Amino acid sequence: MEKLTDAMRKLLIFVLLTSFYSVVCAQKVVGGDLSLAPAYEAAGDMWLDADGKVINSSYNDGIITYVKDVAGWNAVRVRLLVDPSADSYVATCQDLDYVKKLGKRVKDAGMSFLLDIFYSDTWTDVSAQWIPKSWGYDRNTPTATLATKVKSYTTEMLNALSAYGAAPDYVQIGNEVSYGMLWDSASGGGKNQAFYMSGTYDRYRNQIERFAALLTAASEGVRASVCKDVKIVLHCERTVSADHTINFYDWVGQAGFDDYDIIGLSYYPQWHGTLAMLNATLKELQDTFEEKEIQIVETGYFNNSNVAAPTYDTSATWPFSPSGQAAFLKDLIEMLGQYERVTGLYYWQPEECGNAADADSNNRVMDQWDSRGFWEMTWKSGRHALNSGAALMTLKKFLATGDADEEKDISSQFDNLDFEACEYSDEGGYVINCPGWDINFDNSWSSGPWPVKVNEWHSNMVDGIALQGWNESGHTLAEGVILSQSKEEMPAGTYTIAAIVHTDNAGIALFANETSAAVTSTSEWGKAYEVRVTTSLSSPGTLTFGLRFEGDVDVIDEMNLYADNFKVYYSDQIVGILGDVNEDGAVNINDVVAIINVMAGTASWPNANVNSDTDGKVDINDVVAVINIMAGS
Questions:
Q1: If you ran DSSP here, which 8-state letter would residue 91 be given?
Q2: pTM beyond 0.90, yes or no
Q3: Any catalytic annotation for residue 176?
Q4: At 530, which helix (H) or strand (E)?
Q5: CB 617 within 8 A of CB 611
Q6: Which of 298, 340, 351, 376 is catalytic?
Q7: Annotated catalytic, 298?
């Protein structure tokens, strides 16, 4: 074996580390959209911190320093409009000069900068996507002409920002473009260039292809700028429907656009429903678009109950109050932590503190209240107490979700683990449909399995529905899997399956792939036990888990089985597998160093695991194998 010099070895380690961390590790970002902060400052409004100190003057760069050093943010989002003077809204004031100055403050603070390009003079969302007045175009303008302008404008804006010291790290090409963009002039107000995901691709083919051409122009404008290596965000707010959201990203792909890195979503409970609804959308997105990161680029929650009736009233779960805001963010962050490719979370307009009206009652920052900010709101400018400090400080916890070595609850990625969604017949109670589960009783269970309401006989089991099976004398119980779930393309790592089980026979086992753990049997009604089993995947693969019978079928007279509340936990550390070169129970960069030391001749071949690709020799391919395991690929 050719030995490496010490210099070569150090260089190789450096290159591998650099490549690994730049390619594999997606940085998590958390922050908020602070597009109104300079407007409030100019109006004389002052935010107070938890101690009552004026943030504007007590921190080096006021609100920017405060959210970074105290609230723990590492990113800020800012919107950019073409000519906001062309509309009458006081809140749309973010022209290029405004954004350059705010963006530079963000960059000077050492934070990431997400630039949200509206491609309009005014608000853009699912109800309004109007062509800037100065462009002189309308809905009849040829797509190619409009696309040329989109590309040149994008490049011009990014180059100007970069020259000012405000180069963005992320560029969002359009705001809430769920139904398309640049529909018509504001005066024309036509929406026939819009499309709707409740329809079909063929029905809206012309509109979708027009939209894809404009997105392509925007991304080409990014790539033609000095900021060509930024990550591009494509923003959809149809989070309320997993099917509609999937259609959106699928349709633009069909139309030929794929030059974006991040799926950007809006999630406001009052419009987009419960966390369960968001979870369903995230699950579908992560499974369908495996190469894309996902970020919640807008979220927010009401700080008081004096608001218009929401589409979805979640106040019973999270009150419309500062404490409700904190509870909402806590639950949201906990759920997002289950998804390894959810890499960003931005709160919408946290700096909101009222209208900033002057002495003559002229609104200078907002015409109406969104009621989702963290500070006390008043009509006229003044000092604003921090009302939602707990919510503000909760945001930074997003950065800690999914850390290495941390076991995450990923149960939401699986279906019907509590059996609540099972359907059963009116007569006999047989299972006729149990989503997510493959149930194989082979007619050996008397009356078959069926969901039952857990009653006082099984008081130690989780409340709700449990799966019940009963094998009586005279029936033959086959060995093998009783019930199971499988999911393909799970990342490399360690998986722990937990379940609550009652059985009166020692032959039942909880299994995960090839590993199993016996369920403690008991003849005592009302007693159930939690059982856990752990397995590892050394590379992405299939995880299968459930219950199986491993006992002696010849000695069974009767058996009862109840199962409920399955849970799935994941850690990216891989225990007891090929690749753990230094045998410390984990596959990490230390194993790379161990392999390089063997290659350099400064260490012996300690065990077969050094040969991580099992080809019989220790070489650079083993380093690649370990890094692939670490990357989950």
A1: T
A2: no
A3: yes
A4: strand 529-537
A5: yes
A6: 298
A7: yes
